[in-house]
Design a protein that fits this description.
566 residues, alpha/beta, Growth Hormone, Chain: A, Rossmann fold, 2 domains, 7-stranded mixed sheet, 4-stranded antiparallel sheet, 11 strands, 56% helix
Length: 566
């Protein structure tokens, strides 16, 4: 009777342990995939490659587990190693990237090299490549050790029962699948909302707890017991420190990648945001740059050029400006320009409500000096009584507008570049066709359309995609925005004359801009000779095709020299 009760408690302990560790394993996959996606450009292929690599590594680990002689000792050491790697890998990856990216600048300063002569080839390029791909290395290591858990738990159960258990693997795999499902839920509902280093520390703490329970419960079966206890205590202290300071350290490492001083950095549910500041002397205002996932979104020195070209042509060519729709633009800068046209109502749809909150109420989130600069920049446009803010996915939110039979005099689409698969749908025929239904008959739609120089094919594809949505006239224009280089926009009308024809009937812009003139705007519709020569070979982006995303990724990889075979 006593043995049966002990076997029951042993089984409960082992099955619960397996479920918890399965959840931890899945969370590690998500953690490394999530971080690798940000480091390597938030690419879909990166995330899938990481998960696939870890699954293969788990299989290798399962085979390697046969070489462990004592399952009890092996399991305790295994959980210690997984907890060590799980808690520290993100920080190590961030440190490697920071070192390899700042080292060329250190060498350049040491030898007084000009800014355009940074040592970035040869060894420096190889080190940078290894650093940026180090998430895969840690994914391989973690996957390998996680793969050992199931075989060791199975062996421990049979050693305790001292017999072959008929349904041993089925029971353990059942616990593994259920635990993995719970881990996925915890990731989505909780861990995604906290800092990535806190998430890794909490997960590693569970692995360490599993090892600690085994030390106390199977004390007599273990060797090097005092060493194991000491190591577990030391690692617990390290995990506590990482939980408290890890995100600060990671931010400091990330900050080394920016030329200017980082004045604020944080993570939202969807992305990493960073503000940098460049001091321009006593008589001039500091330059503020805003980054999402390391990509520049605007610079205070020239954002008026970008937003002027985005807003002014559409509103100047529209018959009325009473009711305006803005897709994206959570920083309030495009909205600031729209409000100068004295609309009756503006609807702004942005997915990341936390970003909107920061720019709407910067005093609650940002350092005092930075918050004052943001207010001066967007002129508190997001708090204007005429503005209705919808914090939702625009792809779904416009269906609600269609149900209400809303009609807008102009539509401004101010979305990030299609550098992630989730954004691809917002550049599709389906999306533009539904926006057309929201546009007044004599209204105009303007779309941020990436760089016609750096990403020519994706720029042209956006224009062709809008045409495929059956707009009457679709035209594109471009100009230089110093912080971005050559940049482009697409503009379309539903009925009547083309946007350019409408602009040419004006004597001047109805609302004066601090940079743009009507002549500059009209000239921006001119492109170099043969720019559209291969237009017919560039595909249209239909929903689910990922055309724009792939074209954009290939373009920027070409610019960075990553598509070379070397």
């Amino acid at each position: 009777m006593f043995n049966q009760r002990k076997f029951l408690w042993d089984d409960v302990l082992l099955i619960l342990t397996m479920a918890v560790l399965a959840g931890c394993g899945l969370i590690y996959e998500y953690l490394l995939s999530h971080y690798a996606g940000r480091v390597l450009g938030v690419m879909e292929s990166t995330i899938y490659a990481m998960i696939g690599l870890m699954i293969v590594a788990m299989g290798m680990g399962a085979f390697a587990a046969r070489k462990i002689q004592c399952a009890f000792n092996g399991f305790v050491w295994l959980e210690f190693i997984i907890a060590l790697l799980g808690s520290s890998s993100i920080l190590i990856i961030g440190g490697l990237i920071a070192i390899t990216q700042t080292f060329p600048h250190i060498i350049a300063e040491m030898f007084s090299l000009p800014p355009d002569a940074l040592p970035q080839g040869g060894l420096f390029k190889q080190l940078s490549f290894l650093a940026f791909n180090s998430p895969y290395f840690f994914g391989l290591l973690l996957g390998f050790f996680i793969g050992m858990e199931i075989p060791l738990i199975a062996r421990i159960r049979e050693e305790i029962h001292q017999t072959h258990l008929k349904n041993n693997l089925g029971t353990i795999y059942g616990a593994d699948y259920i635990g993995a499902g719970c881990g996925a839920a915890i990731w989505v509902l909780f861990l995604l909302t906290i800092d990535i280093n806190k998430a890794s520390a909490l997960t590693a703490a569970l692995n360490l707890a599993a090892g600690s329970v085994f030390i106390s419960y199977y004390w007599r079966k273990l060797k090097w017991r005092k060493t194991l206890v000491s190591l577990h205590i030391a690692l617990l202290l390290m995990i506590v420190v990482i939980y408290q300071q890890g995100n600060s350290w990671l931010n400091q490492m990330s900050n080394l990648l920016y030329i200017d001083k980082v004045v604020y950095s944080a993570s939202t549910r969807f992305q990493q945001l960073t503000f940098t500041q460049r001091h321009m002397g006593i008589e001039q205002a500091n330059i503020i740059n805003f980054y999402l996932n390391g990509r520049l979104q605007f610079s205070s020195i020239d954002e008026h050029i970008y937003h002027g070209y985005l807003v002014s042509p559409a509103l100047a060519a529209s018959a009325r400006h009473d009711n305006i729709l803005i897709i994206g633009g959570g920083d309030g800068l495009a909205l600031r320009d729209v409000l100068q046209w004295d609309p009756q109502q503006v609807t702004l749809i942005d997915l990341d409500g936390e970003i909107v909150d920061i720019f709407q109420q910067p005093h609650d989130k940002l350092p005092n000096m930075l918050s004052k600069q943001i207010i001066a920049l967007n002129k508190s446009s997001l708090s204007d009584s005429r503005v209705n803010i919808v914090k939702a996915d625009a792809f779904l939110a416009i269906d609600e507008l269609l149900k209400k039979r809303s009609v807008f005099d102009a539509i401004i689409v101010d979305l990030p570049d299609p550098s992630h698969p989730d954004l691809n749908k917002l550049y599709s025929v389906n999306f533009y066709a539904r926006l057309k239904q929201l546009l007044a008959g004599d209204g105009v739609m303007a779309i941020q359309s990436t760089s016609p120089y750096h990403a020519k094919d994706s720029f042209i594809s956006i224009g062709k995609t809008v045409k495929a949505a059956n707009f009457n006239h679709v035209e594109q224009y471009h100009d230089n925005v110093p912080s971005f280089g050559e940049w482009g926009w697409t503009i379309a009308t539903k009925l009547g004359a083309s946007p350019l024809t409408r602009l040419k009937t004006l004597n001047k812009l109805p609302v004066e801009h601090n940079w743009l003139t009507l002549a500059m705007l009209i000239n921006s519709f001119e492109f170099p000779q043969n720019f559209y020569l291969k237009e017919k070979d560039i595909p249209i982006n239909y929903l689910g095709s990922h055309t724009i995303y792939q074209l954009h990724q290939n373009a920027w990889r070409d610019q960075q020299g990553l598509n070379n075979s070397q």
